[in-house]
Amino acid sequence: MATNKLDQHWDELCEEWNEANERFLASFERVNKHFMAAANDASASNAASSELDEQAAAWKQLEDIKLRMSNFVERNS
Fold first, then answer.
1. Which string of DSSP letters, residue by residue, matches 2-51?
2. What whole-number distance in Å separates Cα of residue 46 and Cα of residue 58?
3. How far is CA 1 from the centre of its chain?
4. For residue 65, which phi and psi values (nearest 5 degrees)?
5. In a 10 Å sphere around its CB, with 0-12 CB exposed, 13-18 middle and 19+ buried, how is residue 20 labelled?
6. Most exposed: 9, 22, 38, 39, by fewest CB within 10 Å?
7. CA–CA separation, 39 vs 21, rounded Å?
8. For the stretch 43-60, what's the b/e string if a residue is b when 16 or more beta carbons lie within 10 angstroms of its beta carbon?
9. pLDDT digit string, tens, across residues 45-76
């Protein structure tokens, strides 16, 4: 039974990782588009700055999940 709970917890961590990774990749694509447009438009530059904040938050979330995954593996190996 404990193994099932461990497996379930690991699966939840993996799913959370995948969702956060998708968020980060989507923000990366948006930042890239804004920077390409920013060369010609000041308002696009402001949008790029906002997207960079979102990208930083997504990266922080990935780092947090990575640490939780490492701790999980350490505790259960």
1. HHHHHHHHHHHHHHHHHHHHHHHHHHHHHHHHHHHHHTT-HHHHHHHHHH
2. 19
3. 31
4. -65, -40
5. buried
6. 39
7. 28
8. ebeebbeebeebbeebee
9. 676 677 788 888 888 999 999 999 999 999 98
